[in-house]
Structure formats: structure tokens, C-alpha cells
Amino acid sequence: MPADPLSIREAWSKIPSPGSVETEFERFTGKRMERILATVVAIGSGILGAQALIAGITTMAWADAARIAMLLVVFIPLVVMLVACLIGRGVRTASGVFAVVYTAALAAWPTFVDPMVKAADQPWIFFLVNVGVVAAMLAFPLWLQFAWAVCLPFVYGYVRLVEGEFSRDYWVITAFDVSFTLILGIVIISLGWMFRSVAAGVDEARARAVASYAAAAAAAAAEEERATMSALMHDSVLAALIAAERAEGERAQELAVGMAREALTRLANTEAAVAQEGSDEPVGAAQIVIELRRALSELGADAIVEERGGIGLIPGRAARALVLAARQALGNAVTHAHGRGLHIIAEGRGDEGITVTISDTGPGFDIEAIGADRLGIRASIFARMAGVAGTADIDSSQYGTTVTLGWEAR
Fold first, then answer.
1. Within a 10 A sphere around the Cβ of 399, how many other Cβ atoms?
2. Per UniProt, what is one GO molecular function of this protein (predicted)?
């Protein structure tokens, strides 16, 4: 089934132009990677947050309003960040708010520590240090992410030492906690940077591939349009001018006027592919033979048209290209061989295809010696048949020329 031209035009319009601004399509992998990172962060932060909440509730003195306020200040932004990560909306804003609020709460923690109580156990706020680091990974640029991963463990270390009144026992434990948290935070930021870099590389490669394809498609379309226009000028306009120049009788003048009218119509419809190449409705081999006989009549030539094989159907576009290429071959035979020994064979193979052979007994010519600016054979025969996945072959010698045109169903 042929593609809908409107669908093709719509799909073509969605291909980004080279050098255009970054589009949703070009950042496909990067956006998917951000979604994956947000989901993983939500799962891990949810587990650590649950542990911290349990630890905070079980060790809290409910008469201490300041500690309850600290718990709410930390966990409300954390819950908002988890929800944003799960739904994929406002992730950067929610994560940035939590990272800043948590760092401020951690720095203010000594204010809420009872100096008379020796906190032998780790405080609940410690469980969220790496959550603050991954929040920075989702919210901040790379340099600030590493700054957060380095500074936040030292803020925690200072808080622990203040809580322990800088006693010797706390130095060893705090040094271990800080070093562990520091290494883990840097590893988390590095993994996030690596995954984002890979995703950006994939998006960049895809953008280059699409831009290369768009450029190649544009060049191919321009070349096809040039070849089509050249073939049109040679087939219709030039043929009409030659016919008008040679028209001596009334019949010849009428034919020249008809050819000129057809040439003008095709020129007016150069932007419509269907108008140029005809309908895609299937055409029988018998109709092709009728068109070939009509072409002979317009050229004022006498020839034998022989029909062989079974009657089949081929797409209208292929039939149109076959007839136009055969008309060009007939015109060459009439012009250069004066129609001597002109013989046409149309051999149908049912629905599998058709072969048209045009032969004459003229003096022949050297195909390799034809100039590049001569489009009668290159554009009107070879390029035209190639455009419909057909074949064209020319065998010329001093004993005559044979042009074989074929199309097969694939």
C-alpha cells in the first residue's frame, strides 16, 4: 500500500534541522536517564528516611518542642522530594530545597543537643547525610554536587564532635563515619556524572545521525527534483519545440500544439509528484501498448508493435515511467536512426512484471561518448526507470540500437 503523502510530510516535518536548538527528541536518552536516577534516589532515600524516622521517634523526648520542630523541618521536604521523584515532576526544585534545608538543619543540630546527655549512639539525622548528597546530585550543577559531597560529611563530623564535647572517644568514631560518608558521596556523584555523560553521548550521536540523514535526504530530494525537472524539460518542452519547428502540415501542427499543451500542464504541476507520474492505480500491459502506439502516432513514425505474454497489472507510477522512457527511446530512434527498422516488443509476465524492447537498424552510437549535459538517455531513460525500481539497458552498434526496459514486482 503506498504511503500517504500527508503522513510522509508530517513525519518529515518532525526531523530536526542541523544546528537547530535542542529538542525533546534529541534529549530522549538524557531524559530517560534522569527519570531512572530520580526513581532510584526515591527508593534508596525512602529506605534511609524510614530508618531515620524510626530512630528519631524512638529516641525523642516528646516534651522537647525544638526536636519535634527539627524532625518536621527535615522530613517534610524529604517527603516532598520523594513524591516528586516518583511522579517525575519538580524533581530539581524539591531536591534542591531538601539539600539546603537538610544542610542547614544539620549545621544547627548542636543547638538542639542537650550537653548533659552523652549521645553514644548516632543521631537520627546522620542517616540522611547521603540523602542530602543524592539530592544535590539531582538539583545542582556538577561542581556544586562534588562540593556538597565533600562538605556535608565534614559538617556532620563537626556536629558529632560538638555533640560529644570533642572528647577523645568521639574523634576515632567520627573520623571513620566522615571518611566513609565522604567516599560514598563522591562515588554517588561520580556514578551520576558517568550515567549522564553516557546518556548525553547517546543523544549527541543520535542527533548527529538524524542531522546526517536529514542532510542526505535533502540532497537526494534535490537531486531527484533536478533529474525530474531535466527529464521533464527534455521529454516535453524540448520535444514540443522540435515538433513545432518541424510541423509543416496541418496534422503535424495539431500534434505540436497538443505536445505543447501537455508540456505546459506538466510544468505547471512540477511540485505535485502524482501529477507528474500519474495515478498509482494498477495498469494493464495492454494499456502500455496503447500508449506506445499513441507515441508512435505523435512522432509520425511507422513501426511494428508486438504484444507477447500474459496480461497482468503493474502500478500506475511504474507504467507511466516505462511509457515515458519508451517514448524517449522512440524519439531517439526517429531522430537519429530515422525510424529505420523500428520494432517494439511488449512482453508481459502476468502480475510479475513487463519488458519493453525498442530496436532499430540505424547506425548506432557510442554511449560512453555522450556528453554529461545530454539528458535524453541519462535522465529520461536510466534515471526514470531507476526511480521506480525498474531496469534499463541499451545495446548499440553499427548494426542498430536495442533499448530494453523492464519492471518486476518485488
1. 11
2. kinase activity
